[in-house]
Task: structure prediction
Amino acid sequence: MDGPPILTAMQMRAAEQAAFDAGTDPYALMEKAGAGAAEIIWRTGHRRDTLVLCGPGNNGGDGFVIARLLRDRGVTVRVAALGESRTASAQRARVAWDGPVEDMLIAAGAGQVVDALFGTGLTRGLEAPVAARLCELVEGATLSHAVDLPSGVGGDDGALLSDVPRYGICVALGAFKPAHLLYPAAGQAGRLALVDLGISLPGTVRRLGSPALTMPGPDAHKYNRGLVVVIGGGMAGASQLAAVAAARSGAGAVRRLAIGGMVAEPHAIIQRRAEQGDAVARELEDERIGAVLAGPGLGLDQEAGGRLTAALGSGRPLVLDADALTWAAKDAALSVPGGSILTPHEGEFQRLFGDLRGSKVDRALAAALRVGSVVVYKGPDTVIAAPDGRARVASGGSTWLSTAGTGDVLAGLAAGRLAVTGDPFRAACEAVWLHGEAARRSGAAFIADDLLRALPAAIAARL
Ligand SMILES: NC(=O)C1=CN([C@@H]2O[C@H](COP(=O)(O)OP(=O)(O)OC[C@H]3O[C@@H](n4cnc5c(N)ncnc54)[C@H](OP(=O)(O)O)[C@@H]3O)[C@@H](O)[C@H]2O)[C@@H](O)CC1
Ligand SMILES: Nc1ncnc2c1ncn2[C@@H]1O[C@H](COP(=O)(O)OP(=O)(O)O)[C@@H](O)[C@H]1O
Ligand SMILES: [K+]
Result:
């Protein structure tokens, strides 16, 4: 579940400084970063003629190292710079490159372009002529690499500070930065590669890794594998999708509390009628219940509010999604019990938490702290945040997920994994991973129901 760390520029500088304080030579670190990047560029580009663009800071210094090492392997390399090198390490790397240095603004293109203009030191957008020339050169190349970051993105929040071209590969140095995973920058970075610089890094914010799941033990029975209750409402299909997802996530038993007519299949879902809050409250007295899901298809009428109130007061572990989040945003009396899982999309997040500051990771962490619960802030870049400061980011998954009902499936998965594990953060991480993996396995133009069918294979892949 723990993918590689994600560091802001300030955290990256602190980690590098700690390494320098412990005796690492700054220039040796630049050589190591440049060598790692050159290796990746060599493996993908081979002998393609190459233009390396070098900026004034250490990112440019990496570029000079890359240029030298590619040339040493027999690649035809040209270097074009944007001004003089301003740091001691970059100046040293520039001297070690003993070939000519062209002016970036007038240099001709090449089959392969390496952007080492700016990395974590970018403080503002590129000047318009520089951004325009960068776009022309990168878009005119067959293969393009961004060194550490695409020049022009806000490394800490993934914003585009000026026009940014789309790269083939982005080689992150030392650690991923938020912009590698957060949109819109993540959409321009292309395929991600990571160079390990061997320095010690903080690990509270990480890329979401694949979970280690386990089979039920020989002592397993339906009630000790996790009992989930899904509270239904006017839109039966939504709570049914969630209920089946919970069942397919590995839970032992799933009950769906329906209003009106029952959904017949699959027969494994236990359907019970509970329209009023008091009927729901009675259903939730069962102490074996490991998770209650409220929200998908719940409704916004008065009876729906009564059913939600019963869930919030049940004392059972909760997953709140969709209409439950809309209720919580508009009715201050409906406070969210700590230790829950909330799964808002962008609109629900805005309604619940308003305009928080910072990157999507910062906003998710602030929201988690405010409600004392795990927040799954959904989207093409989904951030899972815990009140203790941990966060995981899942990005670059199937964009076919942008179809109705996939959020209901995710909420059901979160409830199922919560009942199985009893740990809200772990459950949310496992649910997001399984959801993304089921989408990957479902190919193109799938619908939410198809994700349900892909879940057993997604789980089997992690046993
Ligand atoms: N620390 C290390 O030892 C290691 C670091 N590593 C590498 O260093 C990179 C970070 O290096 P960095 O901090 O030197 O910043 P970098 O991104 O090169 O740019 C800063 C320069 O650009 C300037 N500038 C900013 N914005 C601008 C704009 N819009 N238009 C024009 N100029 C602008 C800014 O000057 P300013 O005008 O803001 O004073 C400054 O001169 C990191 O991403 C990684 O690649 C690796 O080698 C591993 C070892
Ligand atoms: N463009 C996208 N790329 C990847 N995943 C997406 C994209 N759009 C939505 N998703 C994912 O699909 C799901 C949609 O959930 P939600 O918006 O609640 O939809 P619904 O309410 O219709 O079920 C979330 O898990 C979200 O992260
Ligand atoms: K760069």
Q: What stands out?
A: Residues 26-45 form the longest helix (20 residues). Residues 227-460 form a domain with the UDP-N-acetylmuramoyl-L-alanine:D-glutamate ligase fold (CATH 3.40.1190.20). The chain has two domains: 2-203, 227-460. The mean pLDDT is 96.
